[in-house]
Amino acid sequence: MLPQPSGAKGNDSKEEISLQRPWGARWTEVLARDECATVPLGHCSIGNGPSTVHKLRGLGTLKQGAGLVGMASGPMSSADSSSLSTLEELSDAFDSALGCPHDDSSSLGSDSELNGAAPYRQTDRYGFLGAGGTQDGLGQPPVELIRHREARWLEMTLHWEKAMARRYKKVKVLCRKGIPSSMRARCWPLLCGGQTSMDRNHGKYKELEQSPGDPQWLETIEKDIHRQFPFHEMFLSPEGHGQRGLMQLLKAYTVYRPHEGYCQAQGPVAAVLLMHMPAEQAFWCLVQISERYLPGYYSPEMEAVLLDGEVFVALLRRICPKAYKHLQKHSVGPLLYVTEWFLCLYSRTLPFPTVLRIWDTFLSEGVKVLFRVGLVLVRLALGSSENLRDCTGVVETLEKLRSIPARLLQEDTFMAEVHNVAVSDRDVERECRTQLAKLRKVQPDFGYHPEQRLPNAKAVFDAQQLEDAQQPRKGRHPAPAFLIPEIVVDPPPLLPKEQRRLEREQLKEQRRQEQERRRQEEAAEKQAWKKKPPGRKKPDTRGKTFHVAQRPLLSLAQEGGEGEEPGPAKRNSAPYLETYF
Fold first, then answer.
1. Contact 452/296 with Cβ under 8 angstroms?
2. For residue 157, what are the contacts with CB-CB under 8 A and spacing of at least 6?
3. Per-residue confidence at 350, pLDDT binned at 50, 70, 90?
4. Does 85 have pLDDT greater than 80?
5. Distance CA 404, CA 349 (A)
6. How many CA atoms, within 13 angstroms, populate the side-chain half-sphere of residue 4?
7. What band does 543 get if pLDDT is binned at 50, 70 and 90?
């Protein structure tokens, strides 16, 4: 529960506290003083941050769920509450809340990375403090099933190109079931193409890491480092390898993409990657996510987020009309809740086991998974009349979206609902085109092109294969210094059955060619007949009277003389028939 500042009103009043969101916008939340307030994990600044230091008011058990952390109120003196302002004192209060004795030799400022793990500090199987070992086995599949899945993934990663080229559907099914924790460090870079990018650019990350970087970006990154998962054992100490590795990774990205620079939402994404793999692999995975899966998300204009917000509203109108009408009624725009979800890939919103399952599916199936998860969250929070009864305004609606019961967010149950949402890649592409046309009517200079975004891991794999074919890697296949003779091997003789089949095909081809030749000849004859000049027109003899006259043969004999044979008949000869009309 957040403290009551000096000079505040009574217990019945409410307090407005401005919280720093991961993408840089400042939001105002109204927290009831008498209830157990919850603060998003990492949103409050502690120690040397620029925001107000929120002091713990009382002791109690740590509440962690759906990405929210709060402290239950308990008995504590005012002197104690006023002294909890530094990181070391926060560690003492945290240990006291867990019911552990105070130890001056270990604190949150000097974690297990420097002084060794304290015997009383308990973490869950993901490395977060404050969870007992009894909770690690809840909701977990049997050990035999985990080992079986690990063996299948290990076999698939050994022949990854064959799996992606021929068995991508099988890869997608296995990703939906969940990648084993021991295999994520190997599978995530292969799915997103980070491993291929790292192999192409050998030694590039070292150069970026050693470059000085922009002082402006370095100052901003340094202010945000301590906000990334402050209750994870990897990021407890400013001098630990977690915060230092995250600082170097984000600085390397600003050098690699100076036109984009640094976006605060990249911090939690890079932190989740660093929890599972070395810094170089995490860097190239971040590059692939920023350029292949979510291009334009972390750019200064953030036009892609604006477009996807409109696409989300259009899909919500079809999937859950009741929630859509409620959000439209109270003028709750998509950027008020979708921005944090999409930019941080739900790493600040949902329980960490569910986040990992979402990432498994997202790296396999692409951005449509983000839309499906968001639609399920809105349906769980605002999909029924009972849930809408208490939502009378913008603040209550946003609080409802942030306070979904943890039992509904359990990874297996939640992901089953996500996979059942009827949203495909074609639906997302169609809505992108429709909403892009509308946005360009309002903003003619809207320059984002959704065609740059690849839909899934198969598309990323195909794009990289095409790039390798067009531009072979340097040094991988060096040209030989001498000519290698070409060996020509004659094909084996055909079997009788194959020979007969080949003969039938040749005969069919000959018949087809003969028919085509005949067809061409007939067409040529028709064309020549059309071009032939018309003949002499016969006279019209209908209704006419014919007069036929024949000269006698005797006259012909007298004219021709004796001893002469009669020649061919002439016009005036006797055999000629004269016709008069």
1. yes
2. 183, 186, 187, 190
3. very high
4. no
5. 10
6. 15
7. low
CA 338, 339, 345, 349 torsion-angle sign: negative
Token pair belonging to 318: 């079809």
Distance CA 107, CA 415 (A): 37
Q: Look up residue 502 and give its two tokens.
A: 């080949």
AA identity, residue 68: L
The one-letter amino acid code at 147 reads: R
Report the greatest alpha carbon distance in the chain: 166
Residue 22 is predicted with a pLDDT of 36
Count of other CB atoms within 10 angstroms of residue 66: 21
**Which residue has 């509450």 as its token pair?**
81
pTM of the model: 0.64
Q: Which two tokens stand for residue 66?
A: 């759906």
3 state SS for 302-346: CHHHHHHHHHHHHHHHHHCHHHHHHHHHCCCCHHHCHHHHHHCCC
DSSP 291: I
| Token couple for 244 | 């230092």
The set of long-range contacts for 85-92, using a CB threshold of 8 Å and a minimum separation of 24, is 85/53, 85/55, 86/47, 87/46, 87/47, 90/46, 90/56
Q: Is the pLDDT of residue 139 over 60?
A: yes
- Which helix (DSSP H) or strand (DSSP E) does residue 132 occupy? none
Task: Give the pLDDT mean for 130-145.
Answer: 65
Shortest CA distance to 121 belongs to which of 144, 142, 149, 102? 102
The residues, ordered by sequence, that sit 6+ positions from 281 with a Cβ below 8 Å of its Cβ are 185, 189, 194, 195, 198, 273
Nearest CA to 290 among 241, 345, 332, 336?
345
As given in the structure block, the two tokens for residue 236 are 């407890």
Gap between the Cα atoms of 281 and 186, Å rounded: 10
Residue 477 C-beta-side C-alpha neighbours within 13 Å: 5
E strands present in 55-197: 62-65, 68-71
Percent of the chain with pLDDT over 90: 53
pLDDT at 568: 54
Mean pLDDT score across all residues of the chain: 76
pLDDT digits (tens, 9 = 90+) for 311-332: 999 999 999 999 999 999 999 9
What type of residue is 48? N
DSSP state letter for 232: B
Q: Can you list the alpha helix ranges (DSSP code H) found in 383-495?
A: 385-388, 394-402, 411-419, 425-442, 457-470
pLDDT tens readout for residues 29-80: 323 333 333 333 333 333 333 333 333 223 233 333 333 333 333 333 333 3
Decide: 45 and 53 in contact? Cβ < 8 Å: yes
What's the residue count for the chain? 581
Give, in order, the Cα–Cα distances in Å from 461 to each of 177, 292, 456, 474. 21, 11, 9, 20
C-alpha–C-alpha distance, residues 470 and 464, integer Å: 10
How far apart CA 553 and CA 573 sit, in angstroms, is 9
